[in-house]
Amino acid sequence: VAKQGGAKDKFPCPTCRTEIVLPEDGVTGYKNNFFVLSLRDTVEAHKNLAGMNDDKVLCDVCEEEASQGCVECEEFLCEECARVHCRAKRTRGHQVIGVAELKEQLTTKTPSVKSKSPPICPKHDDEKLKFYCETCQNPICRDCAVLQHKDHKYGYLADVVGDVRVKITSKLKAAMPKIVEYRHASSAVAKKQAELDNRSKKAADDIDAAAEKEIKYFIGLVRHKQTELKEKLAAVTAARSKQLSATADSVESTLGCLSSTVDFSQKVAEHGSDFDVMNVYSDVTARLESLLKGQIPDIPDDISYVMFVSCTERDRKGIVLGNIVDQRMKFSTLGATGRQGPTTLGDHYRGQDH
Fold first, then answer.
1. Residue 113: its pLDDT value, please?
2. Prediction pTM value
3. What count of Cα atoms within 13 Å lies in the side-chain half-sphere of residue 126?
4. How far apart (Å, rounded) are the C-alpha atoms in residues 103 and 352?
5. Dihedral of CA 23/26/29/31: which sign?
6. How many Å apart are CA 307 and CA 301, to the nearest integer?
C-alpha cells in the first residue's frame, strides 16, 4: 500500500484481487487476523522445536537455558521467567511443566492453530478478548464492553461461537456447489482459449497459404507483362531496322548509279575523242539529269530513339511495369486488373508516318 503512494485509497486484495477501500486511519484501521497470527506462531514454534538441541533448550523470553515450560503458551522458560510467568495476572493460571515433558507433548501432538485462550486486546493491556459485540460484530475485552460498547448488544464469545460456527458451516455448504460451477467455468475458459489459439494458428496458416497463392499469381502476371513488353520492344526494333535497311538499300543503289555515271562521264569528257563525246552525250546527260532530279531519302532523327521508362508509382488497380517510349508509339503501358488479365495495354500515339 505504501508503494502505491499516499493518494491511493483502494488496493486489490493479494489473495482474491477484490478491490478494498482503505480505512481513514490507514492499514491500522483493519482488524487483526488472529487466525493468521496463531498459524504463524504455530509454524514458528514447530520450526524452533525441530531445530532444538536435545541437550540444551533456550528460554523463549530471555534466551537463557530453559528448565521449565508453559503448556498453554507452548513456551520454554528459565527458572526466573517461570516464576514471573506464574505471578503475572494473565498467566498465573497456566500449567508449568518440565522442559522434557513439554518438548515431548509438542513433538507428539497434532499441530493445531486453535488458541487455547483468547488473545489479548490490542487496546487494553492484559485484557483478553473473551466477549463478542453483536452490534459491531467484533470480539471485545471487558474494558471495551464497559467503555466503548456499553450500550451495544454483546455476550461471552464462547456462548456465541456455536451459532456462528453453524452459520459459517451452512454458508460453506452453499459455497461448495458454487466452487464446482466456477471450476467448470474455469475449464470451459481454458478450453475456449485453447480453441482460440488453435483457430488463430489455422487462420494464420490460411493467410500465409492465400498470400503465397496470390504472390504466385501476380508473379506470373508480371512475367506475362515482361514478355509482352519485350515482344513490343522487339517489334518496334524490327520495324525500325526494316525501315533503315530499305533506306540504306535505296541510298546505296542511287549512290552506285550516280557514281558510275559521273565516273564514266568524266572519263569520256577527258579522254574520249570528239566522236566518243558526241556519241554518248544524249545518254549521259539524260542519265545525269534523271539522277539529279532524285530526292535524297529523309532519315528521321528519332528513328533510333527507343527506351524503357519504368513505373515510379504503384497502380492500386493493377500491375504497371512501365512504358516503351518512342516517336511513333509514345506510350505503351502494360496494365492488368484482377483475374481477367490485362485490361490496358497502353496508348499508341502516332506522330510522323515514316
1. 44
2. 0.44
3. 6
4. 120
5. positive
6. 15
